[in-house]
Amino acid sequence: MKSALKAFARREWGPLYTAVRTALVTKKWRAIPMTLAAVCLTGLFQLVQNQDWGYQPVQNIGSVRAEDPVWLALLRTPLSLFVPALDLPVWGALAQILLVFGIAEICLGRWRTLAIAYLATLAGTLYARVGIALGPDSPLGLPASDARVVDTGPSAAVVGLAVYVCWRYRARWTAGLVVLAMVVEVLIKPNLAGKEHLAAILGVLLLIGVVAWRERRQPPPPPGSDGGEDPEPGVRPGTRSWKPPITS
């Protein structure tokens, strides 16, 4: 039984663990500069928005509501990711960014991490408008009062990144567990945040479908170009598997 569990853990998390550990051992904190900047930015927004003079400026640059004009919501969405929700403890947002963004930055690179994070956040933000239009009588709808709810924080981006990284590194059971947890969250508490998480997952799953389709259409590498073996997840053909992944 114990050996079976060890074998499962190696299959599920081995490539991901190796990639993260190699990068942190060889580059230490230099492996995740974007993540550290995001943690500092989130902490700064939290400090400023809790000051009498700082609350409104933070709202003006990073607060998104479904009742806002679409152009304004799109303009504020990038920074809204780093504005912690006022009704939740900030350490939760900081821990999510440090852990999930850090792993994603190592495994995917900083620009791809940011792109997927914004895609997931944008999917949730746009869903809020669709949900309110559907109304509370629809299983996918939202009450009109949610149009005034301030929609900020990294949670949608964190969920989307977790699913994408798990898919890329073949941690399929872990990805399924993340999706299941979000479904259970909505069933227990069907609020705006929970349904936005599902919208973020759907957006990332669509991206995964496009990426997988493009990869299938690519011609196979010539025989012997990679030593005759399939590369590990996250390792490009023709490179040594022990080298840390490129992060930019």
- Into which percent range does the helicity of residues fall? 55-70%
- Morphology: globular
Roughly what fraction of the amino acids lie in strands? under 5%
Average pLDDT for all residues: 88
Compute the CA-based radius of gyration: 20 Å
Instruction: Give the termini separation.
Output: 41 Å
Uncertain parts: 226-248
Given the structure, what is the number of helices?
9
**Series of secondary-structure elements, N-terminal to C-terminal:** HHHHHHHHH
| Biggest beta sheet attributes | none
| SSE class | mainly alpha
Number of strands: 0
Descriptive report:
It contains 9 helices and no strands. The C terminus is likely disordered.
Reconstruct the topology from this structure.
Blueprint: H1 2-27, H2 33-49, H3 55-62, H4 70-80, H5 90-108, H6 110-134, H7 155-168, H8 172-188, H9 192-217
Helix pairs in contact: 2-5, 4-6, 5-6, 5-7, 6-7, 6-9, 7-8, 7-9, 8-9
Please describe the structure with a list of short key phrases separated by commas or semicolons.
248 residues, mainly alpha, 9 helices, 0% strand, disordered C terminus
Tell me briefly what this model is:
This protein has 248 residues and is an all-alpha fold. Helices cover 66% and strands 0% of the residues. The chain has nine helices and no strands.
